[in-house]
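B., you asked whether I could sanity-check this one before it goes into the benchmark set. Here's the sequence:
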Amino acid sequence: MNRRIGAAFAAVVLSCATIGSGPALAQEKSAVRDGLTLPAGSVRILLVRPGITVGEQSTGGMFEPNADWTEQARRQVATALSIAQTKLGNEIVTVEEPIGPAAERLADYRALFSVVAESVVVYKFFPGNRLPSKKRQGVFDWTLGPGVKNIPGAEGADYALFITTEDQYGSTGRKVAQIFAAFAGVGITSGVHKGFAGLVDLKTGDLVWLNADLQMGGDVRTPEGATRRVDQLLEDFPGKPVTLAAKTAE
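And here's what the prediction gave me:
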C-alpha cells in the first residue's frame, strides 16, 4: 500500500471512528417502578405490534434499511412473541394494525416510546449522566403522557407492552475498516443490535418497566435468533419469567 493510498484509507478509518464513536455502550439494564407487581391473572396487557428495523451499516457507519430483512425479522419475532405471551402470567391482547388517523397515532406513540427508552438509557443507565430531576434513588419516573390510553386496543387494558428492535449488520467495508482501525489503535463498531421492551400504565401513561439492551444477541431474521431476542427483551419482566429457549429445547 503506497503512502497516498495509506493516507486516504487512514482518513476513511478516522471518519468511520468519528461516526461510530460515543459513550461506551451500556450493558443490558432494566428498571421497574417501585412496588410494581403483576400477580398471575391480575391484569390485561395490550401487546403493541413491535417496531422492527433491520439493515446494513455502510463503511462510513451510515444505516441502510433492508425491506426484505425487516419483513423476515417481523415474521420471526411475531412467532416468538406468540409463544412468549402465553408465559407472561396475565391476559395478553392484540389488535389488528389500524389504518388512517388511528395508525398515525399508534406510529407516533411507537416513536415516542423509542425516544423515551433511549433517554432512560442515556440519563439513567449511564453512570454519572443522570438529569438533575432524575437523581432520586429508587425512583423510576418516565412517561409517555396520558394520551397513550387512546391508542387502538387500549380500551379495557391495564398496560401496553411496547417493543422495538434495531439491527444494523456491518457491511464488508465496515468490517474491513474496523480491522484497519484496530491496527491504528482506533476503536469503531461494526454492527448495531439494540432493543427495548417497556410496560406502560394506560391509566397514567407512565413507563413502569423497561428492559434496554444496546448489545443484543440473536439474528432476528432466523427462528432461533428471534427466540433469543424475545427472551432477552422480556427478561426481568415484572411477573412470570419468560424462558423461550427452554421451551424450544423441550
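One thing to flag: The two ends are 54 Å apart (CA to CA). Otherwise nothing jumped out at me.
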